[in-house]
Structure to design on (748 residues):
């Protein structure tokens, strides 16, 4: 079953059209809806121009006023052209704020091909599930012809088989979607590259809460609610303290691994903390990180049934992980490496800060995904 | 799929692209209480929407997968005693609730469904037909049991046979079409390659790919035409109505209108070996199975010799719905009364009164 691609784009495009072409309340209502998205977009877009949050907020307000004032002057061609238009106005306003000349730079026209790609990704960026499904197709080789439910059932089958040693008949009964798959079908699923890549990805990927919960208490990882309580307790240094930790250390663990804060920010958050304390906690946590062990386990599990293909050596797996940690958790490069490099090393895949820089800072991953989005759209998936 | 082509975008374009990616709305995943939905899923009783929610959660959570495995083991080993409300139900109230709900749902469908099957058959039968049916029933119930049934299905199963089914090898074939409706009713029609020389009845079965099967009804062939209409059947198997295809249906000669006077009996291998006994296969039931006042009631002959050979074991009664089996009661054989006739009552809370039309609906197992 193909993924439906068009509703989000049509919605955004029709909003833009309503804003530009209508008058009165209709246009205002459309602008109100667009403003939310514009704020989010500019919050990120302006970061490199205006690192101070207050400056960004002021400029965003100015941009919104300008857009409203120039209502009707934008020619609606595509969503990509709209975001290029918004970005250009924002960049001019940012330079004005910084009292810097901006002739030439701002008027750098976006090529039509780039506009097309931006249009394609604008649609997906409205819906994270679709964006990540696309990333799964590109880097994990997930089958675009399967529905989300079918993909998940196959993934679940692999987890029950490889991780929990559930007998094949029981696996088939659990993942049956109407028809119960037979052993031959199950075996075929378990040998699919897409399924194996997704299996490895789901083993290795830890969201922040899952990781922090494990780091604080590996024997019985804390869940989200317990972490929320611990965070409240840590702010007052009161309450039940997990074994072998001090409140200062707990604060560091939570801020670093739950919120992804770098050391400088952590030291700003609590002046009583010292670089030595942070370093000590990071070293201790690094020893507890589960990724190397998980990689070995995944490799062992898969090698017994499908020795011909090792997903841990596939660059796509690591790109997908890096993309997730970057876009979803907004982790700094150093922390992304901490969560990926040990497992990659264990699997014989070389992952370096330089590669991460190319993938993220140079926008390699974004461009790859954007190109794929455009191609998928053209192919009608 | 998986081709990492890319274009070289201008730096200004890339800035916009990056901002779009990074400003993607991330809803913080809430953690709904999945326990009840997971229990229904474990029982095979979750709706398609619920299945999707549960599966999405399962792939993300190893503890949840372990919980599912635990639930499935409890259901399979079925130390669930509805009648006495002990053990699993008290230890695992969420699972107990899901199982009761599944059972109640199945049973209510059972009652509706059997009635509509009977009505559908009666409409087509004149007095002569009914006499033929009565005569045929005498011999047919045995034929449809156990392994005798398997070859019939083997002929009828699979895509290549589903529409062109062998009724009499080398002679009569039938083209089967089944029209399913949103209200879970269906109309099945078959045209035979030739009219049978003798009155013939055909039964329609729903066959689950893993081997479970459900008898859907039977009707007589009139000329070279056969037809059956009934409703509310998908709840009896783990296949949602919209997922059922023609491949799930099998047509076989004979009727499965059983006389409700035999209860299948299974004796565990271990017990057979240790007590040196042969499984009797079935026991004659003198009354039931039926459900009255939320009690499953069965009366059956229980020979003293068999009883003695089973001393020390446990009797487990289950209701089989399609390929799903629900244990409704367990009793130590030592505590069963020393009478020739055994009366069994198992509590089935929330289930409407009905007569169970199928001898295979209730099974006894000794272990």
């Amino acid at each position: 079953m193909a993924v439906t691609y068009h509703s989000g784009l049509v919605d955004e495009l029709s909003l833009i059209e309503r804003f530009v072409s209508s008058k009165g309340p209709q246009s205002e209502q459309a602008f109100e809806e667009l403003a939310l998205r514009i704020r989010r977009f500019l919050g990120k877009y302006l970061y490199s121009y205006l690192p101070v949050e207050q400056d960004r907020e002021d400029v965003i307000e100015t941009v919104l006023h300008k857009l409203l004032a120039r209502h009707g002057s934008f020619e609606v061609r595509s969503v990509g052209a709209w975001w290029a238009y918004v970005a250009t106005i924002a960049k001019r306003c940012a330079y004005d704020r910084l009292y810097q000349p901006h002739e030439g730079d701002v008027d750098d026209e976006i090529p039509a091909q780039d506009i097309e790609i931006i249009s394609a990704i604008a649609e997906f960026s409205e819906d994270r599930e679709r964006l990540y499904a696309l990333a799964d197709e590109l880097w994990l080789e997930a089958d675009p012809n399967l529905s989300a439910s079918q993909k998940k059932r196959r993934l679940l089958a692999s987890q029950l088989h490889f991780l929990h040693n559930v007998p094949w008949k029981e696996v088939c009964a659990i993942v049956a979607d109407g028809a119960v798959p037979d052993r031959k079908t199950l075996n075929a699923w378990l040998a699919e590259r897409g399924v194996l890549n997704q299996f490895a990805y789901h083993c290795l990927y830890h969201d922040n809460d899952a990781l922090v919960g494990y780091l604080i208490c590996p024997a019985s990882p804390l869940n989200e609610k317990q972490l929320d309580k611990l965070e409240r307790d840590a702010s007052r240094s009161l309450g039940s303290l997990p074994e072998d930790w001090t409140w200062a250390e707990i604060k560091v663990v939570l801020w670093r691994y739950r919120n992804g804060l770098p050391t400088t920010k952590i030291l700003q958050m609590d002046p009583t903390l010292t670089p030595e304390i942070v370093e000590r906690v990071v070293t201790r946590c690094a020893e507890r990180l589960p990724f190397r062990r998980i990689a070995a386990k995944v490799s062992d599990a898969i090698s017994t049934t499908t020795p011909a293909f090792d997903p841990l050596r596939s660059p796509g797996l690591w790109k997908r992980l890096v993309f997730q940690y970057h876009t979803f958790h907004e982790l700094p490069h150093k922390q992304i490496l901490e969560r990926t490099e040990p497992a990659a090393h264990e699997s014989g895949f070389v992952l370096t800060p330089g590669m991460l820089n190319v993938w993220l800072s140079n926008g390699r991953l974004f461009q790859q995904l954007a190109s794929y989005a455009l191609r998928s759209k053209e192919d009608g998936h | 799929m998986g081709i990492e082509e890319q274009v070289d975008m201008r730096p200004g374009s890339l800035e916009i692209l990056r901002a779009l990616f990074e400003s993607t709305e991330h809803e913080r995943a809430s953690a709904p209480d999945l326990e009840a939905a997971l229990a229904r899923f474990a029982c095979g009783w979750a709706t398609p929407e619920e299945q999707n929610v549960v599966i999405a959660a399962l792939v993300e959570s190893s503890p949840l997968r372990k919980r599912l495995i635990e639930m499935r083991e409890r259901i399979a080993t079925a130390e669930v005693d509805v009648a006495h409300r002990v053990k699993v139900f008290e230890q695992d109230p969420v699972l107990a609730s899901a199982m009761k709900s599944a059972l109640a749902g199945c049973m209510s469908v059972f009652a509706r469904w059997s009635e509509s099957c009977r009505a559908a058959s009666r409409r087509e039968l004149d007095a002569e037909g009914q006499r033929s049916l009565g005569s045929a029933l005498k011999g047919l119930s045995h034929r449809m049991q156990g392994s005798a049934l398997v070859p019939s299905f083997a002929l009828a199963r699979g895509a290549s046979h589903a529409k062109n089914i062998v009724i009499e090898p080398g002679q009569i074939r039938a083209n089967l079409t089944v029209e399913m409706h949103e209200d879970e009713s269906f109309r099945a029609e078959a045209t035979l390659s030739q009219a049978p020389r003798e009155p013939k009845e055909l039964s329609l079965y729903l066959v689950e790919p893993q081997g479970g099967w459900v008898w859907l009804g039977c009707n007589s062939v009139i000329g070279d035409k056969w037809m059956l209409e009934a409703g509310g059947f998908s709840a009896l198997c783990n296949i949602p109505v919209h997922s059922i295809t023609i491949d799930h249906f099998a047509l076989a000669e004979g009727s499965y209108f059983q006389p409700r006077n035999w209860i299948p009996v299974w004796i565990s291998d271990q017990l057979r070996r240790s007590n040196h006994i042969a499984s009797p296969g079935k026991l004659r039931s003198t009354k039931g199975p039926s459900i009255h006042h939320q009690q499953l009631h069965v009366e059956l002959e229980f020979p003293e010799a068999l009883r003695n050979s089973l001393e020390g074991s446990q009797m487990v009664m289950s209701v089989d719905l399609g390929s799903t089996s629900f244990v409704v009661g367990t009793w130590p054989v030592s505590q069963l009364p020393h009478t020739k006739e055994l009366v069994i009552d198992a509590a089935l809370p929330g289930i409407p009164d009905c007569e169970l039309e199928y001898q295979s609906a209730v099974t006894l197992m000794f272990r």
